[in-house]
Amino acid sequence: MNSGFLILRGGNKVQKFQVHLDLCSSLPDEIFRVITWIHIAARCNVEVLDLQLSVLKNDMASFELPSCIFLCGSLRSLIVNLYTVLKVPSFAGSTNLQHLKLTEVQIDDRFFKWISSSCKCIKELQLYDVRTVNITIENSSLESFRFVSYKSGICHLNISGEKLEDIHVDWEYYQPGSRSLTISAPNLKYFKWIGNLLNRQNLRELMCLEKAEIYLKPSRDICDFDNASEFLCSICRVKVLLLTHETMKALFKEVSMPLPFDNVSYLGLRITSLSDDLVPAMARGCNRKYWKSQKLNFTDQLKEVTIELSNGFNAMELARYILEQAQHLEKVFIFYLPHQSYVIKRVNQSKKVSAAKIVFRKKQRR
What we know:
With 366 residues, the protein is an alpha/beta fold. The protein is built from 9 helices and 18 strands.
């Protein structure tokens, strides 16, 4: 692109300006050209600025966005994807920015203080593999927060906001060390967490939580999800709960402490099979006697259940238990393997306490 094209626009408004560029040998000249474009776009009252620049990591130590971007009153959305240092000028004031997405950039505490104090209109913040040590954000306008980290050395993540309704955390790490997650979002409705359990997680006042997806994986320096129960108790008021195989094993590890999920109306289990490693080591299979002993209070609020059977009888027994306990159940979907046609008769023999409709569907082996 030639800078003259933008200059000829004069002060005419630019709604969206994108720069997707592979920077190569003449790096200083190309950086200067990109900065010139950004200056012109700011003068043209740009609303969306999308910078996705690819460059060898060793060739670029710092690429500071021009200060005009942080002072551009028309800018509503900023996207930066670049392995570089991103700094906020010391004189940057309030901004009308509503959407901010950063990928692979290196930022410091001053940047997060700018988000907390100067971004009074921001609604959505997305951080992908940003390079920093700690993240602390307190913002009263933020509604959605997404954090993805696979290779950065972030230790502590603290996010706070009265209007936060949606938080997505995808956090995996491979180096030992102390890590923590603190969330203060009294109006949070949707929470999704993928990755490793941390040394410490503190979720405060999640009284409005409607849906939670917890897909945790074991980590090297935290053994066997020792603090999983404490974390799950903090989201006990959730209505829709989705868990994985590993998280389920953590739940059943401490059977002496029942989890108070009384508000759950939909429970989804993403597991390979409902085998005995999901129950206490002393249990001899998950028959209906076992399920009754667990006193799963949430069954009274179930209205629809979907169960996919694998080899063995444990999942079938769980289905029969639910039919005999869930008073408000309306529909049950049971997916069974071709050799499990006997399930239809066994389940239909259950003493249902509701008028629930049972739908059987045969699934093919993969």
